Amino acid sequence: MAAITATAPARPRKLLASRRTRVGILYALPVVVYLLVLFVYPIFSTLLLSLKDADGALTLHWYVDALTGVNLSVLFTTLRISAETALFSLVFGFVLANAISRLKPLWASLAMLVVVVPHFVSALVRTYGWIIMLGDKGLLNELVPGGPYRLLYNELGVVIGTTSMMLPYTVLLLYGVMRGVDRRLLAAASSMGAGRVTIFRRIYLPLVAPGLASAGLLSFILSLGYYITPALMGGPNQTMIATLINQQVTKENQWNGAAAQGVILLVLTLAGLLLVKAVSSLGASRKKRSAS
User: Model pTM?
Assistant: First the structure.
């Protein structure tokens, strides 16, 4: 009798928990269906397409083709330009974010507005703006003596264009990290006789290092699949993987090869995202250790 009395209150709780579970599943069902239809299904369809030959049999031919010859050269070009873009975005983004983080909140907000607002302009419009500025009779060649300099349809032009596209992301990330740095630590180090270089190298840089790594990796990942700017500002030697996919689909009608290239690009992107997560976790653990 005591056992029955003890288990009686547990049944309503169990029933309530089960009902909540059913309600939760009902609420989550539209989101799950949305993700399955718009994300999971296209990815698996692309994966299956990349593993089929003309007769529908399974094959790895398209991956071998994507990782050899000209296609491999395009992949290396994509990685190189993305790395260069990430590097220059970090350099300019660090200088900008550091300068803005030292301003008063009102002026910092205005400065961030100037940095972010151009991002809402179409990438195509901004790319054509760079083409006008960097052309043989553009503003830059008119102002700099000794020209005209060849600033378009080469790797320099592509890196300039892609860096300008990635810079707002970098500045936003770094500004948030730098704004969170406790300036009292820098003042304390200065009061103990540390010079500016020492403070920067041993205190400030380690504190913002996770943000630098995250911003650099984000710029690298976004540059991997960027299409408009490299296609318009680059030459034949600057063909990137997104441009190659477009050519295979629109000109060669080679959907299987384009699917294989897309899967490789997806794998590279996922690897970069996992690296970003690892770096963020490392930065969070360092903050916890320093706080304790």
Answer: 0.82
Tokens of 209: 């290092």
pLDDT, tens only, 85-144: 999 999 999 999 999 988 888 898 899 988 888 888 888 999 999 999 988 888 888 888
Average pLDDT over residues 273-282: 77
Where does the pLDDT of residue 3 fall: very low under 50, low under 70, confident under 90, or very high at 90 and above?
A: very low
DSSP per-residue letters across the chain: -HHHHHHTTHHHHHHHHHHHHHHHHHHHHHHHHHHIIIIIHHHHHHHHHHTB-TTS-B--HHHHHHTSHHHHHHHHHHHHHHHHHHHHHHHHHHHHHHHHHTS-HHHHHHHHHHHHGGGGS-HHHHHHHHHHHHSTTSHHHHHSTT-----SSSHHHHHHHHHHHHHHHHHHHHHHHHHTS-HHHHHHHHHTT--HHHHIIIIIHHHHHHHHHHHHHHHHHHHHT--HHHHHH--GGG--HHHHHHHHHHTS--HHHHHHHHHHHHHHHHHHHHHHHHHHHHHHHHHHHHH-
Higher pLDDT, 285 or 219: 219
C-beta neighbour count of 46 within 10 angstroms: 18
